[in-house]
């Protein structure tokens, strides 16, 4: 691992020459800093980066579950530092995956990456073959945990082989090494060209999928950070569900043992019937199995919906539309945006896992309430009593809603002046029948106290449900207006958006690309002219002397310029 990093660092070129290059000419700007991956860039190997993160999913879950072994022997107060050390070790062990994918020395990177990935793959397969079972899940535990990482490593092996063949074939064809470093990507250039074109007179017809689900944009590509985060999030979610299944298995076994012990007690003592406990275990088991699938589907849909929201928000920022942002986030500090890029991936995965757990618990609670409220009464022949209770509740709710609607209709019909124009949608906010209006307010004051109590409970219920339901999505805040700053996840999302907007804006990159191309052309012209002058003279001419000679030649040919020269 260290050897791979050292080799790639020695082959990596630096942008500028240093003093050490003058002392040691063999370096030739070598020994540069290896960049494992560009979290803001849009590279062609961003899916390979995502699978490289997927290959490290089991290590991430070990950190998430505090399974990193130094944590068990250290005191509690130093646990945060130990977690940071463990995360650094995980990052260091996975560093060659990303460095070999992103290095400019592609033949060496592909070869070393293939060997390193193959070594990891062989070690894991041998470990699984020797002992496929474990102490937590039991039979085939390691296969259940490690197969996503093995699939990702197989993908990386194929990617490294593809890189090696592609670069080798290109060198055989041209004899030169390919340099893929560019400031402007192809889709970004097409985006700028599309902005300069006239908009079509008629918009093309969209299919049902494009109108309601997703519309592919050829001028937009997700950065490596988003792809890697989503791949790793889905794999970690799978492992989290497996761990949750194990916990449920332990709890259910404990309840079964408790129930079997309770069945033996009535023979010797007066103990209540254990039938309700059996019924509860069966209900929870059925509801839990059903809600595992629904909670997983909800979390996976959040993963893809976050990608859609990211594209939508970035497009709005590129168009100069910041109305969707809270007032407090209209301007974000630069340091917060820089930190947000580093935080986002880890925080999004953690939010998604905790969000899945909370959503699953909520769905289980609602499922148990539904079974006990509707299904079991019908099953036990108590459907009529249940229907009466349900009808009474629905009728009470309908009366409350009817009173609220009646207040609205009465206010619109009797206490507002007529429309100014027949085409107006609503009446103007101008009172009519003021005496009746004051009596209306007086008598409804007391009844609205009770209605307000119901509305308050409804508000609390909706806030709790929506807050728990959207806890996994940090692309929207769950805090009320004015308190968005307290939502650290949403603050990270906004900072990341601004960072991407300022550093990946196609218009800005296109402008920088044109400047870089023009500067390179000017430099080439200067180098060509210098070579031509050097070829005419057999001796070395200093740059200052050449400049003075050109100045003298220009003044001799253009005497009128002498009067315009700045005096010394």
How would you characterize this protein structure?
The chain has helices spanning 2-11, 19-23, 46-55, 57-64, 79-102, 106-130, 141-174, 186-196, 208-212, 224-264, 275-318, 334-379, 383-414, 434-469, 488-503, 506-536, 543-557. The chain has 568 residues and is an all-alpha fold. Helix 8 (186-196) packs across helix 16. It starts with a helix and ends in an 11-residue tail after the last helix. The model has no long low-confidence stretch (mean pLDDT 80).
Element-by-element helix/strand order:
HHHHHHHHHHHHHHHHH
Mean pLDDT, all residues:
80
Envelope shape:
flat
Number of helices: 17
- Strand count: 0
Q: Return Rg in Å.
A: 34 Å
Structural class: mainly alpha
Q: Low-confidence parts, pLDDT < 50 over ≥5 residues?
A: none
Tell me the β content.
Answer: under 5%
Helix content: 55-70%
Cα(first) to Cα(last) distance is 62 Å
Let me know the largest β-sheet: none
In short:
By secondary structure, the chain is mainly α.
Summarize this structure as a short list of keywords or feature phrases.
17 helices; 69% helix; 568 residues; mainly alpha
Please specify the SSE layout and strand pairing.
Blueprint: H1 2-11, H2 19-23, H3 46-55, H4 57-64, H5 79-102, H6 106-130, H7 141-174, H8 186-196, H9 208-212, H10 224-264, H11 275-318, H12 334-379, H13 383-414, H14 434-469, H15 488-503, H16 506-536, H17 543-557
């Amino acid at each position: 691992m260290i050897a791979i990093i050292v080799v790639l660092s020695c082959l990596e070129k630096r942008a500028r020459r240093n003093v050490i290059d003058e002392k040691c000419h063999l370096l030739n700007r070598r020994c540069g800093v290896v960049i494992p991956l560009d979290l803001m860039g849009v590279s062609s190997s961003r899916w390979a980066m995502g699978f490289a993160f997927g290959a490290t999913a089991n290590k991430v879950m070990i950190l998430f579950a505090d399974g990193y072994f130094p944590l068990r022997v250290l005191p509690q107060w130093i646990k945060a530092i130990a977690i940071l050390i463990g995360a650094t070790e995980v990052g260091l062990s996975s560093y060659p995956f990303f460095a070999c994918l992103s290095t400019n020395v592609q033949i060496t990177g592909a070869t070393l990456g293939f060997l390193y990935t193959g070594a990891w793959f062989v070690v894991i397969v041998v470990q699984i073959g020797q002992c496929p079972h474990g102490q937590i899940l039991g039979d085939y535990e390691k296969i259940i945990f490690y197969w996503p990482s093995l699939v990702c490593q197989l993908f990386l092996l194929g990617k490294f082989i593809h890189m090696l063949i592609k670069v080798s074939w290109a060198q055989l064809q041209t004899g030169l090494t390919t340099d893929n470093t560019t400031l402007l990507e192809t889709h970004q250039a097409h985006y700028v060209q599309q902005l300069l074109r006239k908009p079509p007179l008629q918009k093309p017809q969209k299919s049902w999928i494009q109108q309601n689900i997703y519309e592919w944009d050829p001028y937009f590509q997700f950065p490596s950070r988003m792809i890697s985060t989503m791949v790793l999030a889905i794999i970690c979610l799978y492992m989290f569900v497996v761990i949750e299944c194990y916990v449920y298995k332990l709890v259910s076994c404990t309840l079964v043992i408790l129930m079997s012990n309770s069945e033996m007690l009535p023979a010797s003592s007066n103990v209540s019937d254990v039938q309700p406990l059996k019924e509860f275990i069966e209900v929870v088991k059925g509801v839990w199995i059903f809600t595992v699938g629904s909670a997983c589907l909800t979390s996976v849909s959040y993963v893809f919906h976050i990608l859609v929201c990211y594209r939508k928000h970035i497009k709005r920022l590129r168009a100069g539309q910041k109305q969707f942002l809270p007032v407090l986030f209209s301007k974000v500090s630069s340091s917060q945006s820089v930190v947000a890029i580093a935080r986002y991936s880890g925080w999004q995965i953690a939010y998604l896992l905790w969000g899945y757990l909370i959503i699953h618990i909520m769905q289980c609670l609602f499922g148990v309430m539904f079974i006990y409220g509707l299904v079991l009464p019908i099953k036990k022949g108590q459907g009529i009593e249940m229907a009466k209770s349900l009808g009474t509740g629905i009728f009470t709710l309908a009366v409350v809603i009817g009173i609220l609607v009646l207040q609205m209709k009465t206010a619109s019909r009797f206490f507002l002046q007529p429309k100014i124009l027949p085409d107006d949608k609503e009446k103007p906010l101008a009172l009519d029948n003021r005496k009746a209006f004051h009596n209306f307010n007086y008598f409804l004051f007391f009844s609205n106290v009770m209605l307000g109590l119901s509305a308050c409970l409804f508000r609390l219920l909706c806030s709790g449900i929506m807050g728990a339901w959207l806890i996994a999505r940090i692309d929207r805040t769950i805090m009320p207006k004015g308190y968005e700053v307290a939502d650290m996840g949403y603050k990270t999302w906004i900072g990341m958006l601004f960072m991407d907007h300022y550093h990946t804006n196609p218009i800005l990159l296109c402008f920088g690309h044109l400047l870089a191309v023009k500067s390179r052309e000017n430099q080439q012209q200067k180098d060509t002219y210098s070579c031509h002058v050097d070829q005419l003279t057999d001796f070395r001419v200093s740059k200052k002397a050449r400049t003075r000679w050109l100045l003298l030649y220009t003044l001799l040919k253009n005497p009128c310029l002498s009067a315009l020269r700045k005096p010394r």
